[in-house]
Amino acid sequence: MALFDISVAPAARRPIGDRRDRAVQAIWASAILLAVMAVASLTVGASGTSLFGALLDWAGGQGIGLRERVILFDIRAPRMLMGVLVGASLAVSGAVMQGLFRNPLADPGLVGVSAGAGLGAILAIVLGGLLPASIAAITGMYTVPVAAFLGGWLTTMLLYKVATRGGRTSVAVMLLAGIAVGALSGALSGVLVYMADDAQLRDLTFWGLGSLAGATWGKLAVAGPLIGLSLCATPFLAKGLNGLTLGEATAQHLGIRVQRMKNIAILTVAGATGAAVAVSGGIGFVGIVIPHLLRLLIGPDHRFLLPASALLGGSLLLLADMISRTIIAPAELPIGIVTATLGGPFFLYILLRNRGILDM
Amino acid sequence: MIDVQDISVSIAGTQILNQLSFRAGAGQVTSIVGPNGSGKTTLLKAITGELPYHGAIAFDGADIRSYSSTALAARRAVLPQAAALSFPFTVFEVVRLGLLSGLHGQSDDLPARALAHVGLAGFEGRFYHALSGGEQQRCQLARVLVQVWEPIRDGKSSWLLLDEPVSALDIGHQLEVMKIARDFADRGGSVIAVMHDLNLTAMFSNSVALLAKGRMVTQGRPIDVLTNSHLSAAYRCDVRVNEAPAAIHCLPYLLPHMASVRRAAE
Amino acid sequence: MNLRSRIFAPVLAVGMFATVAQADEAQRVLSIGGSVTEIIYALGAEGRLIARDTTSSFPEVAEALPDVGYMRALSPEGLLSVNPQLIIAEEGSGPPETIAVMQAAQIPFVTIPDGFDAAAVGAKIRAVAGALGVEAKGETLATEVAAQFAALDVATADPARVLFILSMQGGRIMASGVNTGAHGIIEMAGGVNAITEFEGYKPLTDEAVTAANPDIIVMMDRGGDHATADADLWANPAISTTSAGRARRIVRINGLLLLGFGPRTPQAVAQLHNALYGDL
User: Fold this and answer.
1) What domains sit in chain C, N to C, each tagged with a CATH number?
2) Entry pTM
3) Which of C68, C82, C97 is the closest to A216 by Cβ?
4) pLDDT tens sequence across B236-263
5) B88 vs A360: CB contact, 8 Å cut-off?
6) Which residues of B touch A296 (CB under 8 A)?
7) Residue B190, min C-alpha distance to chain A (Å)
């Protein structure tokens, strides 16, 4: 083989260091898993209503009873879709943040969206009663999600403004400013918690633990397109995030427009995570555990990592939701507890098995 | 041709380069040498666009800032001094990052071939962070080669901009890598390399630029630049240049201080 | 509770899962809120009860029924899974999304308004009875309870200053201001709430505790070791400066009894008045 001679035919077999085949298999496996979880999520429930029983009845021309219809269409179906969207957006946002900050410990909270969303929710819960009746009538049960989304969005924009100078966003400044903003937001939340009465405090606590129980078609109509759009932007990010692993300068030399990529990344994370946190409260762990796990299995190539994270994140959340709905039926366990209980020990096990790789 | 005209660069208030002019021709290996802190890497970073500068840098006749990053990525590849990765990439995956510029599509064989040429054949499955410093440097070079594989594309010369490409390598590998650079230039490509080792510079360069304290001392053929007076003045120490046959590539490596070693053995 | 309820209630409660057919199929009732459950038992309608929420702790047999969770965080499918035909809930139950789903499933969701005085108790009883369709029994019970209130002689020349402490987590005293159940029951028992500067349950600063200078402290009885809890209370520097702290006067009463504002409230008022003044 002559050096620099491009006319030679390509090699027949993939070299060992090329993990793409495994990555593609993982994506297929995650997609199948998600489909299985989605169907299971429609079938499992505290009420014992059976999806297949209902389908059989409907096929047999008997029609589905009102109660079954409410359970399947008004409760389980929007909840399943919400679970997929929220799980996917949290996992993908985590992966994007880790790629952007070049740090495996990064999570969507670093752009300020979680702290801001939490603050927005607390504001709505504690001060919602002060809203003039006209506004309260319009927003109704959407007051908290809307406030949470606005809070997340505004905080991210604030951090972005602070960290961007001369057209260049410094991720290091963003990280540090995020700590400051987080502290400020925590202080404000503390004041609001002080002002809260007993019932509001309980509402706050439950919001913080996260739940998919409030999933309605109305919320899906708003959150769905937001999350969907943000997720659609991620393939554009994959190439850029790969190059970014060598450093911003090298990424630029490879022809990647680094600032444009940062802008898209921050926008999509704020949009997707903001919407997810707004409708489901504070669900932790998914953003860090899923990308880590996948990186250990299929490597850090973002072209595969991002789609796989979305699929696996959705599956994990559906599984957690099924557990939260049935384990203390007819009551419900907040989903944040389930994801932490599932994710924590499992993650620890994975880390112990792979210590060698991570000791970098 | 890369033509740097009277550029000045200051970083955090300190003037690093002062009215510096420099020229690198196509089809040649141009080395930049000088003591620590003379501004060699800064000059290279100004050319690669990493640092802002006052003055003008022309690339093939046009202002380098007028090229889009995609257009530049198609014409030149940059090897940085050091690269630490935060995620566990395999060697193959790192080298394949050179394909991000999109020039060669999915040419899967290029990474393997580039690795073979830098002496890392069979290393594809190893993890990048598990390599030694020298192996990592060669891996980065393979990545750079993959980015601009052909020395001449569309009639125009491709450029390799290398920041201390051999500083972490043993002498065997140093010769290998310099031969790759030499070969690239002989086939029409262009190389700019920031070098510390004056012997390798002498052996493999067409043109040498000597920097000191942010200014260009002189630029020209190795035999004209690497003289007792120039080097002693620039490096502030007594440097004697041995008289040797005209520096050509593929010469056996001459260790410096041979005279004192032989004298000690006698 | 009348004799018939006393015999049938435990049997029905225990046999609830195994023999659902025993309950009246036309009216499977889900009760949310401790006082609502109490009223249902007092009305003798507990045979129709199929499930309850976490706060429904009286009577004790109610705890044998399935628990649908905390009243402000109800799960829609959980509620549907117990197959109710009527849901009677205390004001403040939620979240609104769950109520919306119940409406979509065409299950009547009746909200019973809350209140902190004798009239409110009567209104609650009548509202629950109305939802169950036993208005006559409701009227009887409401009149009975109103008579019990009237029989209480709580007028006092020198009312005691009462501090209601909700909790003492980490040395922080969470006390009741005005417009709460605690305030209501204190007033009804002939006492005076030592804190009138704010509404709801809020943490108090040490200075505020000293300025309030209560004569007696009232807390909810959570069971467990009172001796330790009392010791913590008297060790608190702010409390030790107060009249109550010096005399070590504290009374603990079961939370649902004290603050439920249901049929047992006259009993609660009497118990509290006794603790404050030692007469009655």
Assistant:
1) 3-149 (3.40.50.1980), 161-277 (3.40.50.1980)
2) 0.81
3) C97
4) 888 878 765 554 445 566 665 544 444 5
5) yes
6) 88
7) 14
